[in-house]
Amino acid sequence: MTENKNRRAHRIEHWQIIAVFLMIYDVIAVAMSYFCALWVRFDCQYSAIPSKYWKDFLYFVPIWAVISVAIFRLWGMYRGIWRYSSYSELMRTTAGSVTSSVLHSVLISIIFDRMPLSYYFFGFILQSGLLLIPRFSYRFALLMRTAVRRDDAAEGRVMIIGAGEAGRMLLRDINTSKEIRDKVVCFIDDNSNKWDRYVEGVPVAGGRDDILVNVKKYNADKIYIAIPSASVEDKKEIIGICNETDCEVKQIPGMVDLVRGRVTVSQMKDVSIEDLLGREPIKADMSAVYEYINNKVVLVTGGGGSIGSELCRQIAKHSPKMLIIFDVYENNAYSIQLELREKYPNLHLETLIGSVRDSRRLYQIFEEFRPQIVYHAAAHKHVPLMEDSPCEAIKNNAIGTYKTAYAAMVHGCERFVLISTDKAVNPTNIMGASKRLCEMIIQSFDAKIKAGRIEDIPQLYTHGSHKPAESFSGRVRTEFVAVRFGNVLGSNGSVIPVFRKQIEQGGPVTVTHPDIIRYFMTIPEAVGLVMLAGTYAKGGEIFVLDMGSPVKIDTLARNLIKLSGFKPDVDIKIVYSGLRPGEKLYEEKLMAEEGLKKTDNDLIHIGCPIPFDTDSFLQQLKGLMDAAYANRKDIRERVAAVVSTYKDASIVNKTAALSQEFAEAGVEEDQ
Questions:
Q1: Which residue would you say has higher pLDDT here, 553 or 365?
Q2: What is the DSSP string of 12-69?
Q3: Which residues contact 113 (CB under 8 A, 6 or more apart)?
Q4: φ, ψ dihedrals at 383, nearest 5°
Q5: 603: exposed, middle or buried (Cβ count in 10 Å: 0-12, 13-18, 19+)
């Protein structure tokens, strides 16, 4: 081993040989620079140079040229890798030349005599130029060769929107990357001061109104959006214009990447459909939420699901006394457990497996851990699957919620937050009806607690009874609320991942109906609303998010196809498969009977509860539970007898379609 190290120590590297030749060149360059400066000073006539100046030059400059090499070496001018010569190499070379020239001027004036001023000035200029030439000529030749090869072998022609710092970083990454074979053909920027100018040789062709023209002019097939500070409205408009082209569209994630100086092509993300929803993300003041959660025991049922796992992430950030993840599906629960333990090693985390349908398991957990806040996210949510298994929707959603709420109430839980859905509004499917039952359950519990009549709340069980509610009357103070929102982008079962997968496979993209519309929100927005409900709650409320205007699913599908660089109905076919069982064309956020009250957040409202006979409802639930566990085929009729707003989907959709036809034709419906 020692012998190998000695061999390496004595072996002359290729760069050291090059450095020797470069030193010889520098000696000649320094001497020639000052000779030329003296020669030019006297009208380029050798005979006109006074002998005094000539003798001083011959005695001093040859020796000084050798000394200059030592100065250059101190500045590290012989250790650079030429193919990577850049700004730092330029600064080292300039600093070395300045040091050498200053010392040259001082020493020759002191030792011999003052030379003409132009000698010092032009000598420095010529010296600096001659020193830079060999150090950057190789780099320049490589860049020229790479540029020629890139032009010949370019696989993509890129338009960058945004000629600022992010756009420049992106251009440099494309030009220097060996893996990327694209060529940037133009920039687009709304700042007219940049138009008809160049960024590192690439023209700024105009503003957003010129995107379509320049896509054709420069034959661009990719558009990279590099405007991290742009507003949602600006991005929406720009993406909408890009959508009219056949280009693949991507964008940088955000300002944080620009600040950290890591804007690269590998970090570009596909333009997400969230960018086209047409509203700013909800940014509520969460300080009160986090203050409320701090040092509390929090239970999240369904903690491994899309909403449940995001709830766990947000809660874990803000120092709960304990976070309990409860889920029937161990793979999801294990995944979020690993993630949280890695990110928050000091978090007191319990991950428990079990079903909300098992009252004995629920009582065991509540008795052992005494959760103070419960976020109830556990539910069956897939509409068509629940249509095929309606009794399971009632068992898991309605009865599971009842059992969890009852266990929370009798064990002194402070807040119980039910996660509901806009499908609970005038439900046309059993899943939506089961979630409406959940809302009615928490409203009933809240009403009984406020009336001081908790003994009227029956205990539903299938495996033996527990202590009844009245035996806990001194500790019952639970506030029950529900949170209602629309479709969550990116969640399990969301339409967006399905569309993306279909596009990746070459189509077709399946849309159930050309007129079907939905309200959308992001997972962080949904979770923020759920958590805010825990602080706004006074009991019995249904919180509703203002999700903006509804979006046509057909429009979402077409936009996703375009943003992926394809043409709808040409490259990727769109197939209308027909409404699925229990699915309706239009979702609603509130029932007609419900009014809206404002909260401190303008985008969050409270739906006033619809009055119903809680005593009758609570008694009917026992019959529903028995029918569900008996797997009765008439379960839908039984649910309809309890949920008056539950209507058969086929009738609702036919009525909606007819109404639209009449509206489009301008004909009044026959009463």
A1: 365
A2: PPHHHHHHHHHHHHHHHHHHHHHHHHHHHHTTT-GGGS-HHHHHHHHHHHHHHHHHHH
A3: 52, 56
A4: -60, -55
A5: middle
User: Are the C-beta atoms of 30 and 82 separated by less than 8 Å?
Assistant: no
Domains of the chain: 12-145 (no CATH), 154-271 (3.40.50.720), 287-489+519-547+593-654 (3.40.50.720)
pLDDT given at position 670: 38
Could you tell me whether strands 222-225 and 248-251 are parallel, antiparallel, or unpaired per DSSP bridges?
A: parallel
**High-pLDDT (> 70) share of the chain, %:** 76
Closest CA to 424 of 379, 484, 378, 380: 484
> Residue 366: exposed, middle, or buried by beta-carbon count in 10 A (0-12, 13-18, 19+)?
buried
Residues in the chain: 671
How far is the C-alpha of 244 from the C-alpha of 562, rounded, in Å?
8
Give pLDDT tens digits for 60-112.
888 888 888 888 888 877 776 555 556 677 788 888 889 888 988 888 888 88
Strands (E), 182-221: 182-188, 198-199, 202-203
State mean pLDDT over 186-195: 91
- Is pLDDT of 170 > 50? yes
Contact 60, 115 (CB under 8 A): no
Burial (CB count within 10 angstroms: exposed 0-12, middle 13-18, buried 19+), residue 472: middle
CA distance 293 to 368: 20
| DSSP one-letter code for 219 | T
What are the tokens at 185?
Answer: 């053909």
> Could you give the 3-state DSSP secondary structure of residue 646?
coil
Position 658 scores a pLDDT of 46
Residue 150 has φ and ψ, to the nearest 5°, of -65, -40
Q: ω before 550 within 30° of 0 (cis)?
A: no
Higher pLDDT residue, 154 or 71? 71
Q: How far apart are CA 417 and CA 404, in angstroms?
A: 11
Res. 261 pLDDT band, cuts 50 70 90: very low
| Model confidence pLDDT, tens digit, residues 193-243 | 999 899 888 999 999 999 999 999 999 988 998 887 777 778 878 888 887
Q: Structure pTM?
A: 0.62
DSSP per-residue letters across 158-173: EEEE--SHHHHHHHHH
**Percent of the chain at pLDDT exceeding 90:** 25
Given a cut of 90, whether residue 506 has pLDDT beyond it is: no
Neighbours of 671 (CB within 10 A): 3
Enumerate the H helices of 246-321 as residue ranges: 255-259, 287-293, 306-316
Do 343 and 382 meet the contact criterion of CB atoms below 8 Å apart?
no
User: How many angstroms separate the CA atoms of 526 and 282, rounded?
Assistant: 9
59-67 long-range contacts, Cβ below 8 Å, gap at least 24? Answer: 59/112, 60/107, 60/108, 60/111, 60/112, 61/30, 61/31, 61/34, 61/35, 62/31, 64/30, 64/104, 64/107, 64/108, 65/26, 65/27, 65/28, 65/30, 65/31, 66/27
CA 269 to each of CA 63, 264, 546, 610, 663: distance values in angstroms, whole numbers, following the listed order? 60, 10, 28, 45, 41
> What does the mean pLDDT of the chain come to?
80
Among the residues of 411-520, which ranges form H helices?
A: 430-450, 495-504
What are the tens digits of pLDDT across the range 593-642?
A: 456 677 666 667 777 667 789 999 999 998 999 999 999 998 998 999 89
